[in-house]
Amino acid sequence: MVQYIDSHCHLTTSSQDGGVGRQYEVDHTEMQLYVMSCNALDWKALKAVGVKQQDIVVGFGVQPYYSHLFRLGGGASVSKEEHYKGVLESKDGQQLCEVIGVLPEPINIEEYITGAFEEFGEQIRCIGEIGLDGAFRLPSNGFNQEDSTGDAVGLTNVRVRMSHQVAIFKRFCEVAVAKRLPVSIHSVRCHGKMFELCRELLLPHEEVKIDMHSYSGSVESVSTCWLRCFPQNRIYFGISKIHSLKNYARGLDLLRSIPLECLLTETDLPVNSTPAQILKKNIEYVIEAIRASHKLASTHEAVAQIYENSCRFLSV
User: Any known ligand binding at 213?
Assistant: First the structure.
């Protein structure tokens, strides 16, 4: 049976529940899930899920929104305050100090990576979510998390320095190369920098395949950059309803610019707090857009092609 593919989804967690997350309730008979981790909390939840349901594709990474929570190299002698002042920036000094005050002790990235592969290595099948983001700002509670009270958390003017985001991204690219694993990449408002980094760090390594998750770059850069540089069996573009097809007309133009063999479907939704029927409808929406943009005879043809693409992406 050919399954729907959700090549990029998440688990909802909260610092209030210690990263346990809600109960996992997705019917796997219809959908193959690639569940990404972004931080230490959802990694803890994903490990628990992966032990019980080994048919999911487990992704391991640090997403830009959480990159400040990790310290590089042998920085153990650097204090919490020194670390955060080095990786965060804001024109509002008082606000920066307030954010630092609520942040946890940073995690050593080397210990985090080593521990993950020692404990769970064989089940990690993708490096993700990793990437760069030139737009996001930190919330007042220090990092994106589910607020158990339901209260809204405002955004600050504090940002993670791009140099730190790049350093974390590079480290995970090194892991992908060493472990011969594909990567799922987040790129927002820094598409040129991301392309150059991927060309430098990943292009020389034929075993590493790339998924540009919920791709938001220009239609032109698909052909002039990515497809000109990377072979079609190594570069994929994840298409989601909530991001890629938010503007449907632009989304169709994007789909037409991407070879059918380079497409993946995704929801980018928390699969443990989103009803399974909603997840399925999101994927079906993308499948129909692929069928229409590529003038396929049926949605079944699109589903089969995406499934084949996913197998190539995972090298299975």
Answer: yes
Kindly list the distances between the CA atom of residue 6 and the CA atoms of 41, 53, 56, 282, 283, in Å, as whole numbers in the listed order: 21, 16, 10, 9, 7
Is 151 known as a binding-site position? no
Domain residue limits, the chain = 4-314
Which contacts of 22-27 are long-range, i.e. CB under 8 A and separated by 24 or more positions?
Answer: 22/272, 22/273, 23/272, 24/49, 24/52, 24/53, 24/271, 24/272, 25/272, 25/276, 26/271, 26/272, 26/276, 26/279, 27/276
Determine the CATH number of domain 4-314. Answer: 3.20.20.140
pLDDT digits (tens, 9 = 90+) for 262-313: 999 999 999 988 998 999 999 999 999 999 999 999 999 999 999 999 999 9
pLDDT greater than 60 at residue 66: yes
Any known ligand binding at 186?
yes
